[in-house]
Amino acid sequence: MKSIRIENITKVYDLARPDERAVDDVSLTVAEGELFFLLGPSGCGKTTLLRMIAGLTWPTAGRIHLGDRDVTDVSVDKRNTALVFQNYALWPHMTVAQNVEFGPKMKGVAAAQRRETAGRVLSIVQMEGYVRRKPVQLSGGQQQRVALARALAAEPDCLLLDEPLSNLDAKLRLQMRSELRRLIKSTGATAVYVTHDQKEAMSMADRIAVMNDGRIQQIGTPRDVYDHPGDRFVADFLGEGNFIEGRVAKTGATTVIETPAGQLLARIDDGPAAGATVTCCIRPERVTLQMGAVAARPEAAALPATVVGGVFLGEMAQLTCRLANDDVWKVTVLGESASAAPPEGAAVTLMVAGEHVVLV
Amino acid sequence: MTVLPKDRLPLTTSPGERAARRRATAVVVVMIALLALLLLMPLIRAVSRGFTHDGKASVYWFGRILTNQILLSEMLNSVLLACTTTAIALLLAVPLAMIRSSVRFRGQGVLSVLILLPLILPPFVGAMSMSRLLAHYGVLNQILARVGILSNAAAGPDWLGGGFAGVAALQALHLFPILYLNASAALANIDPAYAQAARNLGAGRWRTFRSVTLPLMRPGLFAGGTIVFIWALTDIGTPLILGYERLTAVTLFKELARAEINPRTYSLVFVMLTGAVTLYVLGKFVFGRSVRLDSSKATVAVEAPRLGVVGTAWAWLAFGGVIGLAILPHIGVVLTAISARWVNTILPSQITFDHLRFVLVRPETRVCIMNSLRYAGASTAVDVVIGSIIAWLLVRTRARGRTLLDSTAMLPLAVPGLILAAGYVAITARGSWLESIGPMNNPFVILVIAYSVRRLPFIVRGVSAGLEQIPIALEEASRNLGASRPATVLRITLPLIAASVLAATVLTFSFAMLEVSDSLILAQTESHYPITKEIYRQATSGNRDAASVAAALGVYGMVLLGGSMALAGALLGRRLGAIFRA
């Protein structure tokens, strides 16, 4: 297994329009054995980037290194990556065993050893009983496992996965998340995983690169990118956010921000200078709802609001509340209080603790 | 944003891909040149002969056509015939396609294969028994007399009506499956939401069909309709066997068989060629251009009602009636081949298998069968190699000039066999350096070329359809796991398209065995006759035994084609129709 280093990769499909960049000046490093996610909406360039690592698409500028080797000019069959395709791309005319043995066969591995490798990886994915089957005789989940086994059998320098769970039904997809992570980690593979599903990324990744419009917006652990989104796009894409602009009134251990809806407190280490204009982001589940008028506390700001709508979802309720400046915020109420959520028109106070205010 | 290097053009493809693309482009150029040489050069030669008078370029011969009353009236006949044939074929095909797309019933799969049967049975073979079935003393009148509608068979009319109606009916019954396939494909591509929206807004069934469905089907119908029209316009087999000869195509056939050919004939070739190509272009690019559809996929589920016993019976009656009607002439041929005595009775009064045995031992017919096997075998081999390469270039490479190659390879659909044959006659005319491979000598080379060129679109379509079925990811996966380009073609692509290639090969071979226009024109010496020419000669000799010999040969031809079709159907399943689509 090897690390992956991508330096200033840019991809332009149509040279007549050099400003339309599928991937724009992306640099990142994936450590050995890391499960790294490329997360973003469709068309953000994540699959193009993955295909460039595999060598199926050619970068317009920039370099790609696998370990110490610069593979930018190496053709796809000499790169020793293994890609798990979105539709699995299992060859329909070959059995499961023939599919899995294909990679070793192309490397000139002897038949006996190929069979052993295939047996080993198929037992990892618990498909050892299906070697004689053709792909059409397998369910979607089983095909997915065989596709993974085929990639692992090639003993690649890095494993590439292109939305491997997107063709499974919702329930199986949830099951496969933890299973797939366990499988990949157990092989010690360096893996790059492309998805547009933020929950998949949050629950499986060691680190996530959030992409938008061909560029990387932020790289970090799932907790990093969720709790400290670097910009509004990342905050919005990874769950919901309430945004409000304000002016920094006072700096110190707690930064005081004056907004049209009232005063907010933020605990930020090196925040902006007094007088600066900032945008605050507060996650709906970080807001605490209290009935009636409540005073602010030293660690939490209090914003008066009116409930204007609500959806009861069983384990939680999602309310919309109108602030003093007519902004509408989303507030999530969890657990028992969901059933006892205030009715429409109720006057409430939104309590926002300082550590939950993020400046984006 | 990085600044892209300005001094050298940034690259979008890898050096390997670019080299592969250059190689592919070179092959495209070779293929286009080859097709130009084999297809365009003969045509240009033929046309230029029609515009040469006294060694100079001139419209003299062209003018002679326009002032010749007989030729003009033949042209009018030909156009009327083609119009009638196309109209009948439309009336047969569209309702069946509508039934097929709107309801489900038992046996639908079987019927959708059987409906291709008329397409593969050569109409000129069926034509041999038409007079037996429909003339004054024919089987139909015998039946009518038996059930008491006629006092006796002789009192019945001659149903062939001087030939025109018979030719049109036979051609339409042969060609309607082409329209049926195109109409079905067009219907399948129309989102049912369009029709549902019309019904929702208050339009009745008929109104919806007229105002929404039919306009959306138009491109498919036009594409198929032009092919049927061109075919009917230039068919010589059916009119020759039925003896209806006041047609431009028949006149051309007779003129081209002469040792010295009047330049006026080539001028006539030009008229036919221009008409056919113009129609093809109009059908494909002007009227046939598809309405811009928002979606070609179904966005709403449509529940095709499942027919009950009565409905199923009606559907079978509709399909079965048309199919039965279309193969009736061929049943007549089979009966002719096995009849020892068939005079003034509904069925033969005595059965014999002597004719079927006789054609296999008679030296003259054995020679013809061997000739056909050689011509068809060689041309099929040429087609498979060239057609597969072209299909590969079109579907799987990014070579330059692919559009031009595609149109050139499909051109034989627009150029009728009769016209192409005229081209080969022109380049091998007496005195030219190619005379030794001309029709009067050993026509092996030009027949193989003619057969190959005519059937090339089949192979290209068949193999392309196979290639398009393979997701590109299957090949990428192979490359990604370390297989080189050739290894990927060998291990992944070829095994996956083998069925398509084989099916297209089998059909190409069978069609070559029973090719009519080129065979009748390009083989003029007996020892080089292919089967079809021998059938034509025997069938038109007027001798009753000869008719049985012709019928026996026809039976073997039908068995060959039916068997090939069954094999191709087994190999391709539902995709079989793609080969015949316009």
Point out poorly predicted stretches of chain A. Answer: none
What is the string of helix and strand elements of chain B? HEEHHHHHHHHHHHHHHEEHHHHHHHHHHH
Number of strands of chain B: 4
The N- to C-terminal Cα distance of chain A equals 37 Å
CATH class of one domain in chain B: Mainly Alpha
* Helix/strand/pairing category of chain A: alpha+beta
CATH architecture of the largest domain in chain A: 3-Layer(aba) Sandwich
What form of chain B results from the Cα inertia axes?
globular
- Note the beta-strand portion of chain B: under 5%
Radius of gyration of chain B: 26 Å
> How many domain units of chain A?
2
Approximate helicity band of chain A: 10-25%
The CATH topology annotation of one domain in chain B reads as MetI-like fold
Please tally the helical runs of chain A, counting DSSP H or I stretches of 4 or more residues.
Answer: 8
Report the CATH superfamily of the largest domain in chain A. Answer: P-loop containing nucleotide triphosphate hydrolases
- SSE pattern of chain A, N- to C-terminal: EEEHEEEHHHEHEHEEHHEEEEEEEEEE
Number of helices of chain B: 26
User: How much strand content do the residues of chain A show?
Assistant: 25-35%
What assembly state would you assign to the polypeptide chains in this entry?
heterodimer
Query: What topology, given as strand order, has the largest sheet of chain B?
Result: 1-2
Mean pLDDT of chain B: 83
In short:
The complex is a heterodimer of chains A (360) and B (582). Chain A has helices spanning 46-54, 96-106, 111-124, 140-153, 170-187, 198-204, 222-227, 232-237; strands spanning 4-12, 21-30, 35-39, 61-66, 69-70, 81-84, 158-162, 191-195, 207-212, 215-220, 242-250, 255-259, 262-266, 277-282, 287-291, 300-312, 316-323, 328-334, 347-353, 358-359.
